[in-house]
Amino acid sequence: MASTVPAAQASVDRYSMNWIVNKKADLLFFIGGALTGYFMFFLHAGLHLNMLTVWFIWVVFIDTPHFYSTYLRTYFDKEEFQARKKLLLGSLAWLVVGPAIIGISYLLYATGVGPYKTPFVLFLIFFNLWAYWHVVRQHYGILALYKRKNNDFDAQDTRIDKVLLYGGLIAPFLTFAIRHPEARDLFGLTTAFPAYPQGSLFSNEFMSQLHWEHVVVILSVTFMIGIVLTFLIRQLQRWQNNRALNIPKILFFIALIPLYAYINYSPAVTTAPLIAFAAFVTIYHDVQYHAIVWFYSQNRYHKPGVDKKKYGIAVKLSQNIAIYALAGIAMAALLRVTGSLFDITPGFSPIVMTSEITLFGNLTISELLLGVVIGIPLHHYFVDQFIWRPSKDKVLQEDLKIKKQ
């Protein structure tokens, strides 16, 4: 019996193209936002700009304001604050974790322990690793939204998608961590990254010069090639089996995976300050975050017929894009300018050289204040784990216009 499905409809069904917001917004922010990562890296690798200055501009105008975006939909949203009061008040304890770590270092110092600074160094490592993991997790959140929007729930596809996203972002990062001079020093790898072996591959000369760091790089690259090919083969199988391709998901991976591979594997990244690496790998995340919070706030606070009084000041702070941006930048400027004036982070010339004021041993007031400042992003990372769970939060599903599957 001949098929009754029109040819045009059969062709359309080969593709699934449901977007988080809409096609234009998604291509501009959730997918096209990857271009900001390339741009940021080009400022260093191509234009050789002072990356400490670039970092300060980024952190004031883009990155720290995305912390404000979290506050907008939690502390400034009266209904949300009441619903999550225990979480939002209890999580403020992250602001004192850094000073508490300094306190542990002091106890070690007072009792004559040699490596008394180790707890603070481990705290810095923990912070940096969680910062990268936070970015990875948000990218997975975007992937999950595209899968949900396009009914992409096949178990095999989900396994491949997860390995590609997590592995595709973490494997290159491992090679960065063992190649960058500052990162090596932080991890206790005091010598420089060894030169790559000479001679033909697998020859005795080549193998005799092989270091464990080289093995990590080789395994990382091999894994990346393997998982990318696996994903591509899977898409080909779906096409051959007349199963719809999730186009937004594919475009998202095309934007995401090459960006992080390019930055982490590039020789130029090892010549940038470690603080600049945060800007390279986080700005794409920042763009996505601002976009999703803006979409959320417009759906929640400004849809027709909504009772705005129950949400409090969040309504006014999200009234238009100018108010939203200025409020976030004002908060960021206050924090970051203060930080630079007190010699905690780069920026303006300090008015107090806290890095020259000894607290005890070789720990300074600057490091104590840095521990406090680090508590702000740690608080953001922690709270974010609980407020973005559309699979479990029916209210969030409505605010993000996600239908329950």
Low-confidence stretches: 7-11
Globally, the shape reads: globular
Whole-number count of domains: 1
How far the N terminus sits from the C terminus, by CA atoms, comes to: 33 Å
Q: Which strand-content bin applies to the residues?
A: under 5%
The total of beta strands comes to 4
Strand order of the largest sheet: 1-2
Main β-sheet, in a few words? Answer: 2 strands, parallel
The class by helix and strand makeup works out as mainly alpha
The run of helices and strands is HEHHHHHHHHHHHEHHHHEEHH
- Please count the helical segments: 18
Rg result: 24 Å
* Helical proportion, percent range: 55-70%
Query: What average pLDDT do the residues reach?
Result: 94
Give the key terms.
405 residues, two-stranded antiparallel sheet, 67% helix, single chain, mainly alpha, two-stranded parallel ribbon
Describe this structure as you would to a colleague:
With 405 residues, this protein is mostly helical. It has one domain (25-399). It is built from 18 helices and four strands. It has helices at residues 7-12, 23-31, 34-45, 51-72, 78-83, 85-90, 97-110, 118-149, 155-179, 181-186, 204-208, 212-240, 247-265, 274-301, 314-317, 321-341, 365-387, 394-399, and strands spanning 15-16, 245-246, 358-360, 363-364. The strands form two sheets. A two-stranded parallel ribbon has the order 1-2. α8 (118-149) runs parallel beside α17. The longest helix is centred in the N-terminal third of the chain and has 32 residues, at 118-149. The two termini are 33 Å apart.
